[in-house]
């Protein structure tokens, strides 16, 4: 079986079908919609392939407009908005079956020396080597992974380890703050292309960020009471990094209201250096209650 990290690299290796037009695979998964991190990562690859390699991406702003269909290729159309002396801007439109499903604007910056230097330090957390893998933590609670989760675990390109042990009941969640933190890294090497590492981390950034919105309301794993979807996503890349080395994803939700929840994330390396800042808003709609069975006569 191909290593999941190798599959991720393949997923991010877009086919160029015309100048400024790329096509990405969309695996046939047992999901209602294409994973948003996949579309964001592929769109960023398309943008980056039109920019000189000495200008890494420093920010992206994206909107999820329609759910993508698993198994159907996605076409990425790149608009070269600006090529300045130190900044480059690209706009990407993702199209599937003739409909726009996603928009992304990315800015690339030639690195500069000097200027203001400071950062917020991370919270003190256990080292990832002392924490259980997510799949093992779920197995410990359930005894064994359900078949669907077992397949997902085998295909998961990132090792995810929650800083705080998962809570499985609403009683355990009482009084919880809207915060979550995970250690993550790709399950195998991703090569040496910095753009692939940036796009792989973009993929990962959509995996757990909305956890912070849900934690005060329901357990993260098990039956969900809400249908949720990413609405928009923004990232700022501060320092170079490798997505196949451990990074801490510290997440919080300052507000949830009116069917939407906002989440903010800070990504640090094991040395405590702030690498990336992330903000995302998600849509949260309660699943309709199932009707009670009719009483027997």
From TrEMBL:
Pfam families: 4HBT_3, Acyl_CoA_thio. It comes from the Bacteria. Residues 155-283 form the Acyl-CoA thioesterase 2 C-terminal domain. The keyword Acyltransferase does not apply. Keywords: Hydrolase. CDD domains: Thioesterase_II_repeat1, Thioesterase_II_repeat2. The keyword Hydrolase applies. Residues 32-109 form the Acyl-CoA thioesterase-like N-terminal HotDog domain. Belongs to the C/M/P thioester hydrolase family. This is Acyl-CoA thioesterase II.
